[in-house]
Write a structure and sequence with these properties.
By secondary structure, this protein is mainly beta. The protein is about 10% helix and about 45% strand. The chain is built from four helices and 27 strands. The longest helix is centred in the first third of the chain and has 12 residues.
């Protein structure tokens, strides 16, 4: 199986001979390759790529390799970031909204619940270029990314900062991540929309056999053979459903050629009270939108959530790892180490 990172370097070599195979270095059990368009990180257990240009934020789709089983993620990317939003309709001023901020409802993509964008554009598709910073520790490699939103709804300020950490601990089949917003606006219920763990591509369930939602249970792939809106089935809302003991969303991978099951690819929100709404619906692919926050905030304040994303052999293993790290909403990193941070009181 050829490495995704190697493939990107071969493209870079053909397009830009002066950089050849990029700047590659090895340290503490990791190989880090800094190519023109992405950073590739490889260890004994995992391989992942972080895009600098194009479709950015989180871990590049199809690049998270589980070296134990040879399986890769089956979607558009992991911990992918969108807009800053709040509840409430934008219908009265939708024609005045810039860029991709308009949010029509009553359709397959958005369902019936009214929401409105505060700041945009969507980071993953519209930021275009980020400047990831790599931090190397004794037993981990981390990547830091930041971006300031450039458009806003009428009466709102631009410039809120999104800040993301991705931490790859040595010897583990998962990474730890966090997303934080430092706000330029007041809001009665601001939230950030991300993909967690990430959307899932399939053709009638060929790439997965089942979904696991800790607040719902196990769901057969046959439930996703036809499209349906986000609020029709498998939808979670904190205000309606309460806070579960654990907040885990996972899919059980399947080899589309052989039909053989592989490991689970899971995304865990470590403070189960952080998610405000989570979708799991079919719209050509399985859309795993995840919104966190939706609480009052003043300009200058911040809110965040922390996650574990990666490979597990069983639901029981997911639960054990979740319970070890449960109760955290942020992440701090420097060369001395990484530290999960409990929620603000």
């Amino acid at each position: 199986m050829k490495s995704t990172c190697l493939l990107s370097l071969l493209v870079a070599a053909s397009a830009l001979p002066v950089v050849a195979f990029g700047q590659q270095r090895s340290a503490h059990g990791f190989t880090i390759t800094d190519a023109p368009d992405e950073i590739c990180i490889a260890s004994d257990t995992l391989e992942a790529a972080v895009r600098k240009r194009g479709y950015v934020s989180g871990v590049k789709g199809g690049s998270l390799l589980d070296k134990k089983t040879g399986f890769r993620d089956r979607g558009h990317g992991l911990d992918i970031v969108d807009w800053i939003m709040e509840p409430g309709s934008d219908a009265a001023y939708r024609d005045k909204l810039p860029g991709d901020l308009p949010y029509p409802v009553g359709n397959l993509y958005h369902g019936q619940r009214a929401k409105r964008g505060i700041e945009g554009p969507q980071i993953c598709t519209k930021a275009r270029e980020l400047q990831p910073r790599v931090v190397e520790g004794r037993d981990f490699v981390a990547v830091e990314m930041k971006w300031n939103y450039t458009i806003a709804a009428p009466g709102k300020n631009t410039g809120s900062e999104w800040h993301q950490w991705l931490v790859f601990p040595r010897g583990q089949r998962y990474f730890i991540s966090s997303d934080r917003i430092t706000a330029k606006n007041d809001s009665p219920a601001m939230f950030l929309r991300i993909d967690m763990p990430g959307h899932l591509k399939h053709k009638r369930g060929d790439t997965f056999s089942e979904i696991y939602l800790s607040y719902r249970g196990r769901i057969s792939n046959s439930e996703f053979f036809g499209d349906f809106p986000p609020d029709a089935r498998f939808n979670y809302r904190r205000d309606r459903d309460g806070v579960p003991d654990r907040f885990i969303r996972a899919y059980h991978t399947r080899d589309p050629q052989t039909g053989k099951d592989g490991p689970w690819l899971a995304g865990m929100t470590l403070n189960p009270s952080d998610p405000s709404e989570a979708w799991c619906h079919q719209r050509g692919y399985i859309c795993l939108i995840h919104e966190f926050g939706e609480r009052p905030i003043k300009a200058g304040g911040s809110f965040s959530a922390a996650f574990i994303v990666g490979w597990f052999d069983s639901i029981e293993e997911m639960h054990a790892v979740y319970d070890r790290f449960k109760g955290h909403s942020d992440l701090e990193v420097d060369a001395s180490g990484w530290r999960l941070i409990p929620p603000k009181r």
